[in-house]
Write a structure and sequence with these properties.
The chain is built from nine helices and no strands. The chain has about 180 residues and is an all-alpha fold. It folds into two domains: about 10-55, Homeodomain-like (Arc Repressor Mutant, subunit A); about 60-185, Tetracycline Repressor, domain 2 (Orthogonal Bundle), CATH 1.10.357.
C-alpha cells in the first residue's frame, strides 16, 4: 500500500497493534509502525501524539457515540448510560479479535493500563456531560456515568475471561441488571 492510500490513521493503528502483539509494546518503534503501514514517521506524528495513543485509536468516536446515545435516550440517567454502553460495546463486538488482541497488549504493560484508565475516565466525563445536558444534576450525572464505566469494566473483564460464552453487549446488559437488583435490596 502506498503512502497516498486512504485511512492513514487506521493503517497505523492496525500496524501498531500487529507489531505490539508480535514483539511487544516496548520493543516496537514508531519507525517500525510507520514502515509496516507504508507511511512515514512524520505521518505517524501528524496522526498520533505517541505510540501509546495509536493503541487507543477510536476513543474519540467512542466518547461521541456514548454522548449521542445518552442525548437520544428518554429514560432515566441509568437507562441512558446502559443504552449508551450497549451501543458502544455492540461496535466493539464487531471486531472481537482486534479488541482481544488490544486487551492483551494493554494487560502486558502497566503504562498502557494507566492510559486505559485515563481513557475510561474521559469516557465517563463525556457521559456525565451528556447527562448534565439532559438536565441531570451534576452529582447524579457523575455518579451514574462513573458507575457505568465500572459496570462496563467488570462486564468486559468477564467477557475477556470467558470467550464465546456471551457477547459483550449482553454482558454489559446483564451487569447493569445485576447492579440495579443489588441497589434495590
Amino acid at each position: 500500500m502506498g503512502r497516498w492510500e486512504p485511512d492513514a490513521r487506521g493503517r497505523l493503528a492496525r500496524a501498531a497493534l500487529t507489531l505490539y502483539a508480535e514483539q511487544g509494546f516496548d520493543r516496537t518503534t514508531v519507525a517500525e509502525i510507520a514502515e509496516a503501514a507504508g507511511l512515514t514517521e512524520s505521518t505517524f506524528f501528524r496522526n498520533f501524539a505517541d505510540k501509546r495513543e495509536v493503541l487507543f485509536y477510536g476513543a474519540e468516536g467512542a466518547a461521541e457515540l456514548l454522548a449521542s446515545s445518552i442525548a437520544a435516550s428518554t429514560g432515566t440517567p441509568m437507562d441512558a448510560v446502559s443504552a449508551a454502553l450497549e451501543a458502544w460495546t455492540a461496535i466493539m463486538q464487531e471486531d472481537i479479535d482486534r479488541v482481544r488482541q488490544r486487551d492483551a497488549v494493554i494487560a502486558a504493560n502497566p503504562e498502557l493500563q494507566e492510559r486505559n484508565l485515563t481513557k475510561h475516565a474521559e469516557l465517563a466525563a463525556a457521559m456525565a456531560a451528556a447527562l448534565r445536558d439532559r438536565g441531570t444534576l451534576d452529582t447524579i450525572a457523575r455518579l451514574t456515568a462513573e458507575t457505568g464505566i465500572v459496570v462496563f469494566t467488570a462486564a468486559y473483564a468477564r467477557w475477556i475471561e470467558e470467550p464465546g460464552k456471551e457477547d459483550l453487549p449482553s454482558r454489559v446488559r446483564a451487569a447493569m441488571v445485576e447492579l440495579r437488583g443489588a441497589l434495590a435490596q
